[in-house]
Design a protein that fits this description.
Length: 257
């Protein structure tokens, strides 16, 4: 075998090895991308389901329930196109198609929840943030018209304001029931300050007036509760002054003697 033939064989062998490595890398890259897409879709499905199931009933409407069902169905179908071996997703997708088919008649079973602690208010706010993120992603992907996305983002801001109104009001009312007007005044003050910062203040004028009335009531209770303390302090001060005058008189008599 001539050196030329040997060289050609070596070159071909090297080329084949390079091609094999390249093909393996391409296949591995596709597997990794498929795994990444699957993980992302599963995470988004979980988030949409969590919002739909756990958002307090006072913030959940049939329209929002329908939107979340459509989101979850869209993601489920994309996952099934990526991997047919997802029996639980396929079963859930069938249920979602039934729900979406109901349109505006879709039932909302979310129970109303009392927002009375800062931790609870934060949990609900996180759900709003997750909803905001999903709406943004669906709009970027062309799965949700931009006008609809903008309308829903405004609605989320409105729901967030309602959350704060409910939280501060509930906190203040609880403090009043427990005979703690100072804490109630603080809660209502925070509510008034929050509403006054809203760009669309006219939309919340009624709630602002109501919060201001509650603040005034709590402030009156604080003043009433402080009157006895003021009187007691006055009596104590008068007594100390009298005692001091008595000491001065005694000292004067002692020195005079």
């Amino acid at each position: 075998m001539s050196p030329l033939v040997i060289t050609a064989v070596v070159v071909v062998g090297i080329a084949i090895l390079i091609a094999i490595v390249f093909i393996n890398q391409q296949m591995e890259g596709r597997k990794l991308e498929k795994a990444r897409q699957r993980a992302d879709l599963l995470d988004r499905i979980r988030r949409c389901s969590e919002i739909a199931e756990t958002l307090p009933g006072q913030f959940m409407s049939p329209e929002l329930k329908l939107l979340l069902s459509r989101f979850e169905l869209n993601l489920s179908e994309r996952l099934l196109n990526l991997n047919k071996q997802e029996p639980q997703i396929a079963e859930r997708a069938a249920e979602l198609r039934r729900l979406v088919g109901q349109g505006d008649a879709i039932q909302v079973r979310n129970a109303a929840q009392i927002i009375l602690t800062e931790a609870k208010a934060k949990d609900v706010r996180f759900l709003f943030e997750a909803l905001h993120t999903q709406i943004g992603r669906f709009a970027q992907e062309g799965q949700l018209p931009r006008n609809d996305a903008q309308r829903w983002l405004k609605e989320i801001r409105h729901m967030l304001t309602q959350l704060h109104i409910e939280f501060f009001n509930n906190l203040g009312q609880q403090a009043l029931q427990q005979g703690q007007p100072r804490q109630a005044r603080l809660a209502f003050e925070r509510g008034v300050q929050y509403l006054q910062k809203q760009a669309d203040l006219g939309r919340y004028q009624a709630q602002l007036q109501q919060m201001e009335q509650q603040l005034s009531r709590a402030n009156d209770l604080v003043l009433e509760n402080s009157k006895p303390a003021v009187e007691e302090n006055s009596e104590l001060t008068d007594g100390l002054k009298a005692l001091e005058q008595d000491d001065i008189w005694k000292k004067k008599n002692l020195y005079d003697d």
